[in-house]
Design a protein that fits this description.
alpha/beta, Aspartate Aminotransferase, domain 1, Aspartate Aminotransferase, domain 2, 2 domains, seven-stranded mixed β-sheet, four-stranded antiparallel β-sheet, globular
Length: about 350
């Protein structure tokens, strides 16, 4: 029987990593994952069930995702040649690092932000470097550019709106980064459907800009569909490392139908935004809570009382606990749910903070 030292074979930079973990509940109100609380429309569900009989699941999916790319191009006004579909936008983040960085080179991002930028970089043997956000969860381009230049960063990832803070960074500061950074600027617009803000038009003037989007936040989290809009030359290079058939048949078809018939999703987005405004107003009434502005489908807040996360969880309300980050002590992130879910959260929050 063979017994080898398995850990001795694992790369040192991977051993040092902590896996990206999200707590879960078997039942209760789950407001922790930034998902759309509403299911797809009944019309779309009916189409899915009818279509399943005709899908050739014994055949590989379209490797080029042609119909889905056409739907995205129709909504965004870009060329299909600029679009790459990912198994979530996380996959595209990894591809960008693979294509543009040699081992040991640097990628950068603000801090705090989406943890997977740093985790993916470290896993690939790259050097993740951050520049700090100020007390308003924003940054100045000048100091950020100094760090990017000093560290010889190849890529900078900017979440817009930012996760977990929820806000959009200053347009002027981002514009300065795009114009002056001698590398690739990746605008991660996963929550763009809620902010209504984008730098997509800037791609006509600047060839160092990549836009990432996701359908996970607007109803298809279970199907893992993300996409990137690239300069055509860069898209050609990324496609060289993209895994074959990385987007499955069901995901492609459902995503295409959703984008081509977007009215019901847009109505859900309006409901989420209405509830976000209501929830922010209600949270601001709690004496122990500081609420931060949001352009997204979630709200970051800080509660001066200890133990709120665990007390809520014990009562069937799951939020995202961010206290492990030194800048986010006692901070929780609540996803905007349905009115009923939000009321359940508020009722339990009143009980545990009274």
């Amino acid at each position: 029987m063979s017994q080898i030292d398995l850990m001795g074979l694992v790369r040192a930079n991977v051993k040092e990593l902590k896996a990206y973990q999200v707590e879960n509940l078997d039942e209760g109100t789950k407001l922790h994952a930034n998902e759309n609380p509403y299911p797809p429309s009944q019309e779309l569900l009916d189409k899915i069930f009818q279509r399943l009989d005709k899908l050739e699941l014994n055949r590989y999916p379209d490797p080029d995702c042609r119909n889905l790319k056409k739907a995205i191009a129709a909504r965004t006004g870009v060329l299909t040649e600029q679009i790459i579909i990912g198994n979530g936008s996380d996959e595209l983040i990894q591809y960008l690092m693979q294509v543009l960085c040699n081992e040991g080179e640097t990628i950068a991002f603000p801090d705090p932000t989406f943890a997977m930028y740093g985790i993916t970089a470290q896993g690939l043997g790259l050097k993740p470097v951050s520049f700090p956000l100020n007390d308003n969860w924003d940054f100045k381009a000048g100091p950020a550019l100094e760090i990017l230049t000093e560290q010889k960063a190849r890529l900078v990832f900017i979440s817009y709106p930012n996760n977990p803070t929820g806000n959009c960074f200053s347009d002027q500061e981002i514009q300065q980064i795009i114009e002056q950074f001698e590398g690739i600027v990746v605008l991660d617009e996963a929550y763009q459907d809620f902010s209504g803000k984008t730098f997509l038009k800037q791609m006509e003037k600047h060839n160092n800009l990549v836009i990432l989007r996701s359908l996970s936040k607007i109803g298809l989290a279970g199907l893992r569909v993300g996409y990137g809009i690239f300069p055509t030359l860069l898209a050609e290079q990324v496609n060289k490392v993209r895994l074959p058939y990385n987007s499955n048949t069901v995901s492609q078809w459902v995503a295409t139908e959703l984008l081509n018939n977007f009215t019901s999703v847009q109505n859900q987005i309006h409901s989420i935004l209405d509830e976000r405004n209501r929830l922010m107003d209600e949270l601001s009434k709690f004496p122990s809570i500081t609420v931060y502005p949001s352009n997204s489908n979630f709200i970051l807040f800080r509660d001066s009382k200890d133990g709120v996360f665990n007390k809520l969880k014990e009562n069937g309300i799951l939020l995202r606990n961010l206290s492990s980050h030194p800048r986010l002590k006692n901070c929780l992130r609540v996803t905007i749910g349905t009115k009923q879910e939000n009321d359940q959260f508020l009722n339990q929050l009143r009980k545990v903070t009274s």
